[in-house]
């Protein structure tokens, strides 16, 4: 698979407890991205954060939260990201989605 040098970064901010049809939302998003043959997706777990409710989510021992912030990043061509967005809109009840242009310097290895 090849990604154009000028691509897009889709960044999705959700909570660890967010669900889609009974499964973790982050899992549903990553599996759908894979099914749609996007170049890749990565889920990052945040140690601390807050969103539109201003409720603090933290991994500190004294304020243990089971709903830590998650960020999912997906990089691919503008066309493939655009095709993915309607599906994302259908399964997300809340969260923040951003999109930005990125320059891809390397993807994979020569042997792939």
From TrEMBL:
Pfam families with a match to the protein in the record: DUF190 (PF02641)
Family annotation (PANTHER family): UPF0166 PROTEIN TM_0021
Lineage, highest ranks first: Bacteria, Pseudomonadati, Pseudomonadota, Alphaproteobacteria, Hyphomicrobiales
Originating species: Pseudaminobacter soli
InterPro entries found in the cross-reference section: N-reg_PII-like_a/b, N-reg_PII/ATP_PRibTrfase_C, UPF0166
SUPFAM superfamilies documented for this protein: GlnB-like
Name the record gives this protein: DUF190 domain-containing protein
Family affiliation: Belongs to the UPF0166 family.
């Amino acid at each position: 698979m090849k990604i154009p040098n000028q691509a897009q970064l889709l960044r999705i901010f959700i909570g660890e407890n967010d669900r889609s049809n009974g499964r973790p939302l982050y899992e549903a998003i990553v599996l759908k991205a894979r099914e749609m043959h996007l170049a890749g997706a990565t889920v990052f777990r945040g140690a601390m954060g807050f969103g539109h409710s201003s409720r603090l989510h933290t991994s500190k021992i004294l304020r243990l939260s089971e709903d830590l912030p998650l960020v999912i990043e997906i990089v691919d061509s503008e066309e493939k990201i655009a095709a993915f967005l309607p599906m994302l809109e259908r399964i997300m009840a809340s969260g923040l989605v951003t999109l930005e242009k990125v320059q891809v310097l390397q993807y994979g290895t020569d042997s792939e």
